[in-house]
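To illustrate the input format used throughout this study, we show a single complete record. The first block contains the structure-token representation of the backbone; no residue identities are included at this stage. The design step must infer an amino acid for every position from geometry alone.
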């Protein structure tokens, strides 16, 4: 079966890099908006009988990028793709997985339904906000992890006395994986979210005094969580500077300003979301294309993905 890779508009560099790992060019497609804002998608290559992969993180602008993904799926299905896989390195709406206060939409479930019914046979995502999201999808979801490659990047910077810090309870499992890979102790910050842009840290479980903090999280959105965690551990006797590691760097609103004000040696993130060139942060971007190209190769050849999957 022929292999074709298309890109949405969210992260062309990542998509090109994945295609080039396969010695391919991206499939030709056109994504255009009509004057009234409607999206029009057209595939310009024949894909009848092909194994098709669509690469599109649903990063900001979230709804536009989600629509690109769904419309590309629909066009591919109608054009006769034999098998269709969504490669969504960052999956949006994952945090809205329950009704926290009542009379709310469970948006993660609706987005899962939209992706499942748009024509995809399978979805590949990286470091989902919650692994339990898999149960929301009617199609198989391959949940890969960037933690091993991010941990390798951290290892080169780790001072002798460091501590892995989970900035909230949701990050504990991920922090355990970093702590195990790097052979470091861990601590957990007790965080409460006050609004989309504000959080509060109340206390810390674990010993941070005299140790340099490595704060790990699945995503940085406005930077509030990381800011609160770094300040809390420093106030508790942790030794600056800090390292911050995150799979997805959305960096919206005040994020850059907040992170710039912290004593950071390094912010280590992946390229799941494209980061603006020249962002004034000590950023190191770890490329996902080898991991995603390997996943595509294995899926294309119907081989196991088990060593790439995020367990736990
Ligand atoms: C929340 O539970 C997530 O894991 C992140 O900690 C959070 O979404 C980051 O958002 P922000 O940077 O706006 O605090």
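Output of the design step:
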């Amino acid at each position: 079966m022929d292999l074709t890779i298309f890109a949405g508009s969210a992260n062309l560099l990542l998509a090109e890099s994945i295609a080039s790992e396969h010695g391919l060019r991206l499939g030709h497609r056109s994504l255009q908006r009509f004057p009234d804002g409607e999206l029009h998608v057209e595939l310009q290559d024949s894909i009848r009988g092909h194994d098709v992969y669509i690469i599109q993180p649903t990063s900001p602008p979230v709804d536009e990028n989600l629509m690109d993904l769904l419309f590309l799926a629909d066009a591919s299905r109608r054009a006769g793709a034999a098998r269709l896989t969504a490669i969504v390195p960052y999956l949006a709406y994952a945090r809205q997985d329950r009704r926290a206060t009542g009379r709310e939409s469970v948006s993660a479930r609706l987005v899962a339904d939209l992706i499942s019914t748009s024509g995809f046979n399978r979805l590949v995502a990286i470091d989902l906000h919650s692994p339990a999201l898999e149960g929301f999808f009617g199609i198989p979801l391959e949940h890969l992890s960037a933690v091993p490659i991010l941990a390798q990047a951290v290892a080169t910077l780790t001072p002798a006395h460091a501590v892995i810090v989970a900035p909230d309870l949701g990050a504990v499992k991920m922090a355990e994986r970093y702590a195990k890979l790097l052979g470091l102790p861990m601590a957990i910050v007790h965080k409460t979210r006050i609004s989309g842009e504000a959080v509060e840290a109340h206390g810390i479980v674990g010993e941070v005094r005299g140790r340099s903090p490595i704060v790990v999280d699945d995503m940085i959105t406005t930077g509030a969580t990381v800011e609160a965690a770094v300040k809390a551990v420093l106030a508790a006797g942790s030794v600056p500077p800090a390292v911050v590691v995150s799979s997805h760097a959305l960096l919206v609103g005040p994020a850059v300003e907040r992170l710039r004000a912290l004593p950071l040696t390094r912010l280590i993130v992946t390229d799941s979301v494209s980061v603006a060139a020249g962002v004034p942060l000590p950023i190191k971007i770890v490329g996902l294309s080898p991991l995603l190209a390997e996943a595509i190769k294995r899926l294309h050849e119907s081989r196991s993905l088990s060593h790439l999957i995020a367990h736990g």
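Structural context for interpreting the output: Residues 95, 129, 167-168, 170-171, 199, 217-225 surround ribose-5-phosphate (CB under 6 Å). The chain has a mean pLDDT of 96.
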